[in-house]
Amino acid sequence: MDSLVSVDYEIFGKVQGVFFRKHTQAEGRQLGLVGWVRNTERGTVQGQVQGPAATVRQLQQWLRDTGSPKSRIDRAEFRNEKKVATLQYEDFLIRK
């Protein structure tokens, strides 16, 4: 079985006002991942994703290369990757 990981992310570019959070939540749920996503005051989107390592990689690639249809992703940063014994969330949430 694939080990569970937790990764923090922050996405830079035109990612606010383009339904980025809603699309990230939908993509995360479709992949069966858990975590959260929110807008920051500095115009980025940040959050945390948890799940099987290979599936987390799929969302990382989506966050880096795809995003929501009207978004423009300049850069995606991923930090604090660590293995976790159990998932800390039950769903993928949009935080205010």
Automatic annotation (TrEMBL):
Catalytic activity: an acyl phosphate + H2O = a carboxylate + phosphate + H(+)
Domain of life: Eukaryota
Domain Acylphosphatase-like: 6-96
Active site: R21, N39
Keyword NAD: no
EC number per UniProt: 3.6.1.7
Keywords: Hydrolase
Top EC category: hydrolase
Any GO molecular function: acylphosphatase activity
A Pfam family it matches: Acylphosphatase
PANTHER family reported for this sequence: ACYLPHOSPHATASE (PTHR10029), ACYLPHOSPHATASE-1 (PTHR10029:SF21)
Stated family: Belongs to the acylphosphatase family.
Protein name: Acylphosphatase
Organism of this sequence: Alligator sinensis
Encoding gene (name): ACYP1
